Amino acid sequence: MNTGIKPKHQRLVLVVIALVALVGAGLLAAWALRSQASYFFVPSEMQAAPPPTGQAVRLGGMVEEGSLKTMQDGVTIAFIVGDGKARIPVRYAGIVPDLFVEGSGVVAEGRLEPDGTFVADTLLAKHDENYIPRELKDMTEAQARAAVAETQ
Amino acid sequence: MTRGGWKFWLPLALFAFFVALVGTQLLSPAQREVESAMIGKPLPQFVLAAASPDRPGVAAVDLKDGKPRLLNIWASWCIPCAAEAPQLEALQKQGVDIVGVAIRDRPEDVAAFLARYGNPYSRIGADNLSEVQLGIGSSGVPETFIVDGKGVIRYQHIGDIRPEHVPMLLEKLREAGA
Amino acid sequence: MIAEFGLAALWLAAALAGLQLFAGAIALKGRAGELSRLVRPVAVMQGALTAVSFAALVMLFLRTDLSVKLVVANSHSAKPFIYKLAGTWGNHEGSMLLWVTVMAGMGALIALLERRLPERTMLATLATQAFVGLGFYAFLLFSSNPFERLPMPAAEGMGLNPLLQDIGLAFHPPTLYLGYVGLSVAFSFAVGALLTGEVGPTFARVMRPWVLGAWIFLTIGITAGSYWAYYELGWGGWWFWDPVENASLMPWLAGTALLHSASVLAARDALRAWTVMLGVVAFSMSMIGTFLVRSGILTSVHAFAVDPERGSFILVLLAIYIGGALTLFALKAGSIAEGARFSATSREGALVFNNVMLSAILGIVLLGTLYPLLTEAFGVKVSVGPPYFNPVGAIFAVPMLVVMAVGPLLRWRRDAFARVRKSVIFVGLIFALLLAVLLFWRPMGLLPWLGMALSVPLAVASVLPLRGRNLGHLPLSVWGMVVAHFGLALALFGMAADSALTVEKLAAARIGDSTKVGPWTVTLDSVEPVAGPNWIALEGRMSATYRDKAESSVIAPQARSFWAPPQQTTESALLTRWNGQLYAVLGDETEDGRWQLRLWWKPFVTCIWFGGLLVALGGFLALLGRVAVDLRRRVAVRKIAARKEELEKVQGR
Description:
The complex is a heterotrimer of chains A (152), B (178) and C (653).
Chain A: H1 7-36, E1 38-41, H2 43-48, E2 57-63, E3 69-70, E4 76-82, E5 87-93, E6 105-112, E7 118-124, H3 141-151
Parallel strand pairs in A: 1-2, 5-7
Antiparallel strand pairs in A: 2-4, 2-6, 3-4, 4-5, 6-7
Chain B: H1 10-27, E1 47-48, E2 58-59, E3 69-74, H2 79-93, E4 98-103, H3 107-117, E5 121-127, H4 131-135, E6 143-147, E7 153-158, H5 166-177
Parallel strand pairs in B: 3-4, 4-5
Antiparallel strand pairs in B: 1-2, 3-6, 6-7
Chain C: H1 2-28, H2 39-62, H3 69-74, H4 81-87, H5 92-113, H6 119-143, H7 167-170, H8 172-196, H9 201-232, H10 243-268, H11 272-294, H12 308-332, H13 347-376, E1 382-383, H14 386-406, H15 417-441, H16 446-463, H17 476-501, E2 503-509, E3 514-517, E4 520-531, E5 535-546, E6 553-555, E7 558-563, E8 566-571, E9 573-577, E10 580-589, E11 595-603, H18 607-652
C-alpha cells in the first residue's frame, strides 16, 4: 500500500486526536461541573452566606411543625425549613412527595428569591424506609438523628 | 515494551485515582453511626405507657433505683431486633434487668413479637412518636443503652447485639454498677 | 432444608470455580495435558450448580419460608405470586446471587459453544471467568449470604417496598443483570487474548455475538427502567441522571463503543489494543456502577442498611480485577502487533470518531457521577444534575450523531468523499430546513431545537445504506445496523419533542371541574376508594377529551397506601395516542374540598422507548445474522472435512 499516511504517523495522529478529545472532554466537564453543580445548603448556611439569587441550589432540613400552609390556588404550598439555628421560608407548587410531612427531613431543589423565600422546583422526601438524602448526613446532630429516626 | 508504551498505562492511572478517591471516602470515619451526645448525662424526664398488657410502662424515675440496667430500643417491625432476641434472653438469664422501649409499634404486633421471640423485659414502654428515642440520642432500631443506678447513660450499643457482644455488655454493666 | 441445599450448591460451585482457575492456569503454563480437558466440563458444572442454588432461593421466596432472614426482610405471605418471585432478586443478597448465577451461566455457555478460538486463549478466557467469579462467590458467601436463617422463624415477612411492587420493575433487574454480567464475557475474552497475545479478527468475531447479546439486554433494561421511572415516580420525567441510572448507562456506552470497534477489528484487523481495552472497560463499568450503587456511598447513608464492610469488600474486588486487567493491558498492549491502516475518510475513520465520542461521553457521565464524592473530600456538598449532563453530553453526542449519519455510507479502508457527497448534501439540506422551520414555529431551548432538527435527517440517513442494494440478499447484520440507527434517531426525536413541546398543568379541581392541558380537556368525575391485594387507594376518575372529539376516555390515577410496610405511593395514569401521552397524577385533598391534579400533555414522548426497543431489535437482528453466518461456516467446514476424509479413504484403498 503506497497511499495513505504512514502507519506510525497515522497511529500517532489517531492517539493525539483521541487524547485531545478526551482531555477536552475532561476540561469541559471540570469547567461545567464548577458552574453547573448545585450546591447544598442547610438553613443556617443559607442565612449566613446566601447563594446568588436565581442560582440553582439545594436546601436541606426539617419541615417545621405547624408551618405547612396551602395557598388559595390549592396547589401551592408554603412551609418553613429549619435546622435548629435558622429558618428559611419555602414555596412549592405541585404535588408533594408521598412521604412529605411536617417534622420530617426534606431536600428542596430550587432557587432563592430576592425576598429571601426559597422557591422549590422539586421536593425530595425519603424514598423508602432505608433512604435519607445523602446531604442530610452532616446536618446538626439533633437534626440528623431526627431524620434518621424518621427513616427507621 | 514498544516506544510510546506510556499511553497504555493511562487507563490504569485513571483507575488508581478512582480507587483512591472512593477508598478514602469509604474508609474515612464518615460517622455512619450517629453516636449519642447523651452519654455521661442523666436521662431526660419521660413517662411511657405500657406497650404490653403483662408488663408495666417505663418512666425515667423507674431507672433511678440504684440498679444498673439495659435500656433496649426495639420494634416488632425490625428484623435485627428479632436477631438479637436470643442474646437479650441470655443476658436476662444472667440476671440483667432489661427495660424495653417499643418504637412506633402497635400493641398486637408487640404481643405477637414477644410471643414468638420471648419476653426478656421487665418493663416495656410504648414510644409512639420516638420522643424518648430522640431524647436519649438514639438514631435507629435496635439500640441498647446502659443506664446506671442514678439514671445516667453510660454506654450506647448501636445495632443488634450479637453473641460476641454479650460479655462486653456484662462487663460494662459491672462497671456501671461499681 | 432448601436453604442448606442452596448454600451447599453455592459452596460447591465456588470450589469448582477454584478448580477451573487452577486447571486453566496450569494448562496455560503448558504443563497439563489431562488437566486442561477438565476446564470446559467444570465450567458447565459450575453454571449448573449456581442455577440450582438460585432456584433454591426462588423456592424459598415462593413458599415464603419465614425462617430465612432474607425472605422475612423482603417478602410477605400476602404478596401476589409474581412479587414473591421478584422478591428473590429485589434485594442486595438475592441480586448478588443472580449476578453470580448469570456470570457462571455465561461461563458455561462459552465453554459449551465456543470452538473457534485457539484452545489456549479459550483456556485463559475460562480461567479468567472463574477468577472473576471467585471474588463474587467470596463476597456472597462471606458477607452477603442469602440463605442465612433466623434463630427463630418470624411470624410474618416485612413486605417488599411498595415502590418496587410493579411488574416492570420486577423484571427490570434480571434484564439489566444479564446485560451487566454478560459483559464479563468480553472482559474474560479480552484478558484471555492479552495473556496469549492472540488479538485479531477471529478474536473480534468470537467476542462480538456475546457482547451483542449482553448489549441487547442492557438496552432493553435501560429503556424499561426509564419507562418505569417515568410512570412510577409521578414526576413526568423519564431520565434523572441519578447514580443508579448512570450506573446502567456507563456500561452501555462502553459496550456500544466496543461493538463498533470490534466490527473494525473483525473486518479490517485494526484497533487491536483499543478493542481489548474497551472489552476490559465495559465490564469494569458494570462493576464500578454496581459498586457505587451497592456500597451506598453515592445514594444513601443509613446506619444499618449500608454496610461499609460490604463497600470495602467490593472495592477490593474492583481493585484486583480492574487494576489487574489494566496492568496486564499496560504490559502487553505494546506487544500486540500493530493492526492494518486506513485513511480518515473511511468506515474505520467514522467508527474511530464514534468510539472517541462515546468514550468522551462515558468520561463525562463518570466524572459527573463521581464529582459529589470529589468535592466532599474537600468538605463541599454538591449535586450534579441535568444542567451539567445535558449540555456537556450533547457537545459530544451531536457530532457523534452527525458522523453516524455519514459513516455507514463510507467504504472500508479508504473512500472518496465525493462518492457520498450527494447523500450528505441531501441529508444536510433536510437538517438546515428543519432548523429554520422550527426556529420560526415556536421558541424552544437550544438542545431540543437541535435534537428535533437532527432526528429527522438522521432517520433518513439511517436507511440510506439500503439504497441500491438487493434487499432480499442483504445480510441480516446490515438490517440490524439500519434498524438500530433508525431507533436511535426515533428516540432522539422523542426526547427532543418531550422537552420542547410538553405542556404541564397544575390545578386544584372540585368534582365536576374541567381543566385544559394542551389539546385535552380533563374533567374530574369522582374520587373513590378502591382496594387491592395489599393496598387501599383513593382513585380519581377523570374523563379526557382530545380537542373537540365527542367521545372521551377515562383515566384513573391513584394515591395508594400499602400496609406492609406502611407507605404511600402515587400511581400515575397514562392515556396514549399515536402522537403522545396524557399523564395524570392525583394529589392531596385541600382544606376546601378540592383535589390537586397534575396533568401533562407530552407529544411524541413514547418515541423514546419505541426507539430504545428498536435499537435493541437492531442488535437482535445483527446477532441473528452473525450466528447464522457462523453456523453456515461451521457446516461448510465440517462438509469439507468429511469430503477430504472420504477422498483419503478412497485414495488409501
